[in-house]
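Researcher: Next entry in the queue.
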Amino acid sequence: MSASRPKVLVTTRLFDDAATRFLEEGGFEVVPSGLPGDAVDTHIPDADLNALLDGAVAWIVGQRAVTGDVLAAHPQLKVIARRGVGYDRVDVAAARDLGRVVTIAAGANDPAVADHTIALTLAVLRRLKESDAAIARGDWRVVVGSDLTGKTVGLIGFGRIGRQVARRLSGFDVTVLVTSRRPDPDAAGVTFVPLDELIARSDVVSLHAPLAPETHHVINAVTLKAMKRGTVVVNTSRGGLIDDAALLAALEQGEIAGAGLDVFEAEADPALQPLAQALAARADVVATSHAAGSSEEALARGNLISAQCVVAALAGAPFPPGCLIADGRVK
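Model: Structure for this entry, 331 residues:
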């Protein structure tokens, strides 16, 4: 392979051959991270990352923080392509100021996250964790759970994933309440209500909002106390939407029935790891490791969309719909 080809650093896990071929056929050299295939790029030491970024014109990134300092240290780096939809770990303002392009893989993991949301909801309601553990120790007594059918489900946020969750819920004969900054009067099968009404009425509260100052700790000690005692909280969005300490206290005090958690505050603050582990250890909590969007199909879609974003930014092709977050080239 010619050394003159522009380099694209890929630090996402499980980057597949199809996306690699797409970049190579577009005239780029793909530089792998050197990590094991299933390792996340937060494990790359800073010195190694700087060496990998040397000469790269684009970076397809997973969970690694993209800071203003990193961008400033690598002026040749033109494109930051997040293989995912969240970009709270990218300093978008700095990228824009420095003339860089930031993209996400919009739509890649929507079906997977929506499926995972339903899976967590059912697992908590039907107490699958407790039943599985009981049988494993030889106790075959029936663990009695609750139906999803007929319940009221509240969705906080109604973007692409929230809408897909609502469609899946339509088969369960539930009432769907939605709180959103932009209510959609044409949305079928859902009722838009204020947050306090959603909290008070819902049997399941599921989070699908971006993490922003106005959504930080939207589930907190006050909102948890306002829930019905049988309520289940599900979060497949961002850890900071829930005050994890308040959630643990509510569970310990029996204020709510359980939680399905794919994300934790500890992802952004390692000092909170013991709190996350205390939540995950509970019988009434079903936990996964930010895996909702990591089905084989979703990862393949995200890989290809990220590669398409790189080509769009550097070769003048159209960006995939909804993927362009910031374009510092446009002043």
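Model: The two ends are 36 Å apart (CA to CA).
Researcher: Noted, moving on.
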